[in-house]
Write a structure and sequence with these properties.
This protein is mainly beta and 365 residues long. The protein contains one helix and 30 strands. A five-stranded antiparallel β-sheet has the order 1-2-30-29-28, with no helix packed on it. Strands 21, 22, 23, 24 and 25 form a five-stranded antiparallel β-sheet that branches. It is globular and about 55 Å long.
Length: 365
């Protein structure tokens, strides 16, 4: 860990200069407008006021949720500041946390009027050119950081054998309280526990399943209740396959939502729409851009058609199939999560983005 800290301290100094160059190339005008159709946004790169990094440093922004009083909680992987708490105007209220070195996933849930957070530590981080791997874990905490419980390792409940890695990336909570864990950096299964943390089942996987149903980098998971709680389903990211897979709550495969060209992160449901950050765009054109940057946001409507790609190319359908998307403007570096505010604005968390804070996309009406 000390080696990692020394390396990253030096990297932060070099990154300041790189980020200055990055901002100059980011857009040809201040506060550009991105997106398509009814979902267009004005970019606010400086959502977080300058000068806050001295007291609230970050490495990578991973995921963000908003609680009832309006505060925004964001999980990251800085060794002493893994949880950052923001006001909606970007002011940082607090930062704490030193027990989730691979801080990656963050999910809000509510029980009898009290709010809780599920923190997913993937067990992976980068120190120098190579990633460091240990086992991951999922922890339930209250809004002050007090731990309620951690979920059992899948090997301890008979779901995994010793050679199967467990590097979870995300959780989702069903209407009945069941907890779904996506093992996106590990063995590519979804693990289901009840509200008290008792293991129930596993489903998905990459090997020995039909290719059209496999989970290939099961990076995110969400409960989709857009058709009503009684018709809730589980959406799981298959990031390397540029899609989301839909399952029943007990793990039966239903369908695939394709997002070609886009390596999407977790699905975020807001109203009748599905949002996701795009961490990379695998199309040949992207390799022509300086330093191979990548990242934007995708938005799907209630019929699961792509209707906007802020920072990316305009969605086009041919023979009722979406054509591949790619980054169009240097606005977002490795979009890792989208937090949708009540007024429709978006806060976009970025990974591997020169230790910078989230970007705000203000909805243009």
């Amino acid at each position: 860990m000390n080696q990692r800290r020394h390396f990253l301290a030096g990297l932060a100094t070099a990154s300041a200069s790189l980020w200055s160059q990055h901002l100059s190339a980011a857009a040809s005008a201040s506060d550009p407008v991105v997106g398509h159709g009814t979902h267009r946004y004005r970019v606010q790169k400086d959502w977080v006021p300058p000068g806050q990094g001295r007291h609230h440093p970050i490495l990578n922004c991973h995921e963000m949720v908003q609680v009832k009083d309006g505060r925004l909680f964001m999980i990251g992987d800085h060794w002493n500041h893994q949880m950052l708490i923001f006001k909606p105007d970007g002011t940082i209220l607090d930062s704490w946390g030193a027990v989730w070195p691979g801080g990656h996933g963050l999910t809000r849930t509510e029980e009898n009027g009290e709010e809780f957070l599920f923190v997913t530590d993937s067990g992976m981080w980068k120190s120098g050119p190579s990633p460091y791997r240990q086992t991951g874990r999922v922890t339930k905490i209250d809004l002050t950081g007090r731990e309620i419980f951690s979920l059992s390792h899948p090997m301890s409940v008979g779901a995994y054998t010793p050679e199967m890695p467990f590097n979870p990336t995300e959780t989702a909570i069903a209407p009945n309280g069941d907890i779904y864990v996506a093992d996106g950096y590990g063995s590519q299964f979804v693990l289901r526990y009840n509200a008290r943390g008792k293991f129930l089942q596993r489903f998905g996987g990459k090997e020995n399943v039909p290719e059209a149903q496999r989970l290939n980098n099961a990076h995110g998971v969400a409960i989709d209740t857009r058709r009503g709680v009684d018709q809730a389903t589980v959406l799981v990211t298959s990031r390397a396959d540029h899609c989301f897979r839909r399952f029943t709550l007990d793990g039966n495969y239903l369908e695939t939502l394709a997002v070609p060209g886009a390596l999407v992160c977790r699905p975020v449901i807001s109203g009748q729409e599905l949002y996701a950050g795009v961490c990379w765009s695998k199309t040949p054109e992207i390799n022509k851009l300086p330093q191979n940057p990548s990242g934007f946001v995708v938005i799907l409507d209630g019929a699961n058609r792509i209707i906007s790609a802020p920072g990316g190319t305009e969605p086009v359908y041919e023979n009722d199939q979406p054509k591949p998307l790619m980054q169009a403007e240097r606005i977002i570096d490795h979009g890792h999560d989208v937090c949708v505010l009540e007024n429709g604005d978006l806060i976009v968390c970025q990974w591997n983005a020169f230790q910078t804070y989230p970007v705000k996309l203000e909805r243009v009406r």
